[in-house]
Amino acid sequence: MRVPVSWLRTLCDPGGSTAAIAERLALTGTEVERIERVGVGTPEAFVIGKVVAADPHPDADRLRVCAVDDGSGEARTIVCGAPNVEAGQTVAVARPGALLLDGRRLGETKLRGVLSSGMILSEQELGVGEDGAGIMVLPGELTAGAPLVEYLSVADEVLELEVTPNRPDCLGVYGVARELHAATGAALAPLPGLADRDAGPPGAASVGAAEQHARITIEDPEVCLRFTARAFEHVRIAPSPAWLKARLVAAGQRPISNVVDITNYVMLLTGQPMHAFDLDEVRGGEIVVRRAQEGERMTTLDGVERSFDGEMALVCDAGGPTSIAGIMGGQVSEVSEQTTRVLMEAATWVGPNILRTSSRLGLRSEASTRFEKQLHPDQALEAQQVAARLMIELCGARQLPAGELDEYPAPRKPRVVALRLARVSALLGTEIPAEEVRAILERLGFGVGSQAAAQDDARLEVTVPGFRDADVQREADLMEEIARIHGLESLPATLPARRGAVGRLTPAQRLRRRLEDSLRDRGLAEIVGYSFTSPASIAALRLEEDDLLRIANPLSEEHSVMRPLLLPGLLDAARANAAQGRAGVAMFESARVYEGPASQSEGPASQSGGGPASPHDAGALRGWGTTESPAGARPARERHELGALVTEAAPATWRAGARGADFFAARALVEGVLDAAGIVWRAQAAERPYLHPGRAATIVAIDADGRELGWIGELHPLVARAWDLEAAAAFALDFDALAELAPDLARYRDATSFPAVLQDIAVVVDEQVSAAEVEDAVRVGGGELLRRVVVFDLYRGEQVGEGRKSLAMRLEFRAHGRTLTEEEIAGPRASIERELEAIGGALRA
Question: Does residue 236 register a pLDDT over 50?
C-alpha cells in the first residue's frame, strides 16, 4: 500500500518529519517498509504563473514568446512550444535553477534568438499525469507567484506499507490516517462527503427515480453480502483535475478519466473498491449477482476473454456477464467518452470466494486484494457517499432522486464486546487509567458505552466499527488494541502469574534429551529436515509408494508426501555437504515420521504406542492420528523416530586415508544410545530394500520378547549412488518403543570385591545359525550367575567341517557375596551345553 504523505497530512497531520510518522506507525503495528521520494527535486522553484501575453515567435512558426507573471515583480519571458498556450491562462512555471523530474536543472537559454527564462510545464513534466502534448492549465483563482506545491503535490514522500491480512482498513489512506490519529492524538478530518449524504445535487431535480433506470437482484447471498449502487445523469467525461491525478500517480495508479479516476480515488481513500457502469449499456436496466455457469465466457477490461466455472461470482445484466465480481469489469458496459449516465457500484463480496476466483483465473487486481480480506458491508455506503460528492463536483453529474439502490439480504448488527478494566491491567502487566482506555478506543473508531458502577467490576461496553469487525471479536482483541496504541515498548517486562505450578520434564522427554546428547557426545551433528519428501526419493530408497500419506495441496512435487522414515532427509543433507566438499559427515535427526495404514502391518510401528511430540515437528500433522482410512484399514499414524547417518568411520590421517562407514560403525553408535537408555538388545539378521544385503540387521529388545526397536545397516549401493555417496551406514530407532521399555530409574547395585570366574568356550554350529542365536542360548543356559558373554573369534576350516563355523566366546560368572567354586559353575555349564544342542551346536574339544 502506497500512502502519499501530503495526502495523509490533509486528513491527519501530527507535524514532524515523514520519518517520525513512519516510526510512530511502525511502533503501533503498521509496518513501513520504506519511504520513497517522488516528483521534482526543488519544489521551491515551481510556482503558479499567469500568462500575460502569448505572441508568435519571430523566427519559428510553432513557438510562442510568452510574458508570464510569476509573482517576482516583472513579467518573465518564456518561449513555449505547446499548441494550447494562450494569454490569460493560469499555468505551472519552473524558474531557472529548478530540478526537473528527469534530473535536468533548468537554466536560461536562447531559442531561435529569444532568451527564455523558465518553463511552462505539462502534466507529464510534473509527474502528475501522462498528458505531454500541451501545457497544464490551472484554475484561474490561483494567485501568481504562490508555491505550486500548495495547490499540487509536485514533490512528495510516499510511505510503502506492508499491511497484514487482518487489517484491510489500512488499505485505505483514511484508515492509515485513523491509525496516526490514534497513535499521536492529532486531529482527524472527517471522511470527505459523509456530511452530505442526504444533500441533493445542485440544480433542478432530475426526472424519475433510480429504480426506474436500474434494478438489482442478488441471486446468491453466499457470494455477495451487499450490493449498493447510485445512478447519475448528465455526466461529463473529461480528464481529472491535476490534484486528483497527482494523488493517484503518487499512490501508484494511472489516471484515465474523471469517472474511472473517482472509483480508484475512493478505493485508495476508503479501502472500498468501486466500479462504474455505463448505465445506457446495462442491458435491460437490470443488475443480477449470481454464480457463473460452467464454461461461461466474457471479455474483461484488459482485452482478455476469460472462461468461468460454477464457483465464480459474476455481475450480470439481462444479456449476460458484465464483470467478474470483485476483480475486474468487462468491456460490455465500460465507461467511454460517449457515456452520459453512470451507475456507480460499491458491493461487499465474500472474501474466500474472491480469493479462489482470483487464483484460478490468475488475475489479481487492487480490488481483489482488498475484497479477499473480507470487507464489512457498512464500508460500501461510506464509499458511495464520497464518490457521489466527487461525481457532482468533477463530472457535473446529477444524482437521480432516491437514487441509492441497496440490496442487503442479511443485515449485520454491530458487534458489542464487554471490556473489564481490571483484566486489562492484569493482562498487560501495568495500570492503564480508564480515561486513557476510553480515549484510545474512541480514537480508533470504537464506540464506548458507560462504565459500570462497581469499581471492582468496572467494565466498558465497546461497539466494534464495521471496518474492524473481522479483526476485533473478543475482549483480548480490545486489549491488544489498547496495548499497541498505549505503546508496547512502554509495557514492563513481567513474568506470568503462576499459582503452585511446578514444571518438569516427563520421563520420555528426559530420555529423549539423554539419547540425543549421547549422539552429540559421539561427534554427530543434529539436523532438522522437512516433514515432507518426494515420491522420487521414496522410489530411490526402493520402497513401494502405495502406503504413503500424500498431501492434498502440495507446494511442489518435491514435498508432496509425508516422510515414512528419516533417511531421505539425512541423505539429502549428506549430499548437500558432499557437494560443498564435506563428504565425511556424521549426523542425526530426532523427529516424527508418518505411516500409512498398510505400512503398520509389520515392524515396530505396529506395536508401539503414541509418544511425546517432537520439538521440530510439533503440530506438523497432529490430525493424521484420526485420518479417515478405507474400510477395514488401520488409521494412518505418526511416531517419533531417532535416526542417524555416517559416511566416514574414521577421518584421514597423514598415515592413512579416511575409512568409510560400515555396519560396525553404525552398530557402535546404537550401542551407545541403547546403553544410555538402559535397554538390553541384540542385532538380528534381516534385510530391508534400502540396506545392503547381508550387512543389515533388525534391532530387538532381549527383555521384551524380542520386540523390534529399529534397524541398522550399510546403505544399498544403488541407494548410495542415487544420493552421490560412496558408502554410508545408518540406523533408526523407534523412540516411542524406547520410551516404553526404558527403566524409569537406574537401579543401584553394590560393587563386589569377589573375583569373577572367566571361562572361554568354542561353539561349533551350522553356518546359517547367527552369533546372536548362539549368544541367546548361552545366556539362557547360564542363568543368574552368568553376567557377561563376549564373542571374540570366528573360525571356519577343516577342523570344524564344511558348512560349519566355530565361535569363540568368553563367559564371565560372578556371585555377589562370595567366590564361586568349580562345582557351582558346573551346573550352568551343563545347562549351556543343553541349550546349544537344541540349536544344533556343540562345544568344540
Answer: yes
